[in-house]
Amino acid sequence: MAADIHAYQQELQTSPVGLPASDPPPYLPQRVGNSDGYPLAKPMGPIGPWATGRVDWGALSGQTGTRPVVNQYSITRYSVDEWRQRNANMINACESTVDQSVQVENASKNTIIRTYAIADKTQTDCTHSLHVRAKNIDNLKCELNRAISSMQEEIAALERQRRRLKQSLAVLRMPEAIANECLERRTGRPDTELIRDRPEEELILEISLISEIKAILLQTLANIEQQQSDNRAVRQRMEFDWSEKKVAHENDAINCNLRNQSTNTLFKPGATRCSNEQSTEIYWEKFTRETLDMYQNCRLKSEQLRNTLDAILTNAARDLRTQADSVERALATRISCMEEIREKLEIDLRTILQRLADTEIQIDKLKVAIRNMDYSMMVVQTRLDNRNQRPRVENCRDQPQNLLIAEVKSIEVGTSAMNAQLKQEEDVKQELINRRNELEREIMLKRRTIAIDRDRCQLLRSHFPSSTALSGY
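That's the Tektin sequence above. Prediction below.
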């Protein structure tokens, strides 16, 4: 198009309509005078001798030489050669302007093509970069989402373990109360039965074990609650980071879908200014990695704490159940021993009662025998008294007299022996009565002790929780 315009302009300059191709058109400078540039042939002078004129100067023609002659019809300021030169200048200026316009238009077209190509390439690169960035954000967001789900499961698992631990602490109050109740009940044993026997030692060991386990469980509960707080803090940080990445991903997704034909684009002056709060890409990834590393460490600690709690509860339940079995065995052994001694004492009591009855019978027999000896004594004394009534020489100490005296002595000796035996029988009877009282009291004490150990302590021990309940289930 520009070449056609240039050819047309050349044709107008060289071949005007109605003129030979070798002569310039009449509105351009002619060949008269100097060649090549066709300058003015001569300056404009006065017309005739009657118009002297004078030197004048104009903005368009410069110095004209003379002032034109002025009459009532016209005014003349320039010559024909000046007019032709001005036409040539105008035509040359137009040609120069048209050439410049064509050059500028071509340059504009090239600039547009180059600018659009650069803009399209830059936009494509930016779109690809936004896609890559959105993919990276989505990958980290998905990783955070998996970590949040895993942490939520860990929090739920640790919460179940915490409830299990609290249940175990609640159940632990029962064996503690049972052991204390057993010790308190056993303090009500009679005086002679207040001994430090095996059941008491085992009960004291059980109370000590329960106190130690309770302290460990309380410390573990405090550790679990602190770990649960750390788990929730890490989960909250990951959720906060995930929500920010979700917003950033949605923002970059919107940016990825923006095109030149989009209707929701606007001029945003100042959008290229970087905010002071903007972070670097290295810090962005470092922050998320630190969050994920914190999650890994926190989850590892939580799992270790849960495993530790399982071991603690299992060992505690086993130890408590073992100690409870030891206490129950000691109580059973003690009750069996008390039953044996009670049965032995009851057998002895029956023996004592039998002997007491036999002794009383023997005492009665001795008393009857002593009373019967009085008759013999009265007989022999009466005989002696009658013999003492013999007259004079007849009253002699003959053999019958000696035998009667010996009989009196013998009766006295026998009576004394029977009285002494009666005294011994009565002493034995009193001793048997004392032993009977002691045995009855001891049997009563043993029965009370057995009632405490069997009917109270063993009954309480029957409500001792199982290993499953002590484990918190």
